[in-house]
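Work Package 3 (structural annotation) set out to generate three-dimensional models for the target panel prioritized at the project kickoff. During this period the team completed the workflow that converts sequence records into discrete structure tokens, so that structures can be stored uniformly alongside our sequence database. As a representative example, we reproduce one entry of 90 residues exactly as it appears in the project archive.
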Amino acid sequence: MAKKITTKDLSWIKRGKQRREIIVHIEDKETPTEIANKSKYSLNHASRVLNEFKKHGFVRLLNPKQKTGRLYELTEKGRVIRDKLRERQK
């Protein structure tokens, strides 16, 4: 069952160009470097956005004790938003 996203969540993502462009590039379990390379943003920007996504419940950090090679994946809520944004890009 797909998680219901709020208008507030979708609006928050859509208001930020970096947030929009980064969330659509997250596929599976990926490092901030992989996400930064795909989205064409710096590692600093991608890491900052990923931390914001984590606070809002759009991604989960799979290995929080590691300082390097951290892996992120979208939560169900994050996947729903990513898919909505991808539909609108077509």
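The beta strands are 59-61, 72-74.
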